[in-house]
Amino acid sequence: MPEGAVHIGSGKVRELYALGDDGLLLVASDRISTFDVILPTEIPDKGRVLTGLSAFWFSRTRELVPNHLVALRDDGRSLECRRLEMLPIECVVRGYLSGSGWKDYLRTGSVCGQALPPGLRESDRLPEPIFTPATKAQSGHDENIDAAAAARLVGPELYARVEQVALSLYAFAAAHARSRGILLADTKFEFGLDADGTLTLGDEVLTPDSSRFWEAAAYEPGGPQASYDKQFARDYCEGLGWDKTAPGPELPDDVVAGTRARYVEAFELLTGLSFGEYIADPRVVLR
Ligand code: Q0Z
Fold it and tell me: Which residues, listed in sequence order, are joined to residue 89 by a DSSP beta bridge?
């Protein structure tokens, strides 16, 4: 437990600590989930990769919107943040049709009340990126909601601003990722208000756990795409005939090594830095 920090929450793969009255410490573990189940085997350095990517994007997007990042710790897996009053919606942006967006489109022809052209296939690129808010479920899965429902939850003015900022963040990150051979299919942002009431980007941003990253060279719409980072682990688990209920299976060493290599590769492609440089001095991602 980090010194002087009081544990206040656990996510599936992260821990949250209070730092004084208005600070938080977000610590990313090496745990991995597949099919929504935490596996008993860790992926070494996964938490460092995700923390380094998050810090990289916070640093690169601070001109677009202020964020909660205060400091990146020497361990490379802990972010000191400002405590925000979080908005009660998940701010998802989709550039491609996948996951719950694809499911909703098959059923209704729309995603979050936004009609899409007929005849789209799974994983197709959308005519333009769309903002698809969701409620924060206490447990289980977030539920997609339409713009009117989201605007009722946060107020119409804040809703309009959050949509515009989320779309700008996606456009910036998707262009950057595309230039490095990675498609950013979709991503989830969480925003809050700081002590002055300023809209502020919080939580983790543009990591493989909050986004779908696809390898551009392997992109083939018309079906599901391989996950950039988790596909080895998923394929292994599927091959076992596991029923996808807890507890999940242990991963063998070669699957752990292959999965770790994919996380490190995503980090190196997106940041343009070697992962070794990051371990030696995490602050290199802040430029
Ligand atoms: C983020 C979460 C985690 C469990 C609360 N800056 C902030 N201000 C207020 N609240 C949060 C943040 Cl980031 C906040 N979460 C998600 C993160 C473990 C849950 F590391 N919950």
Answer: 135
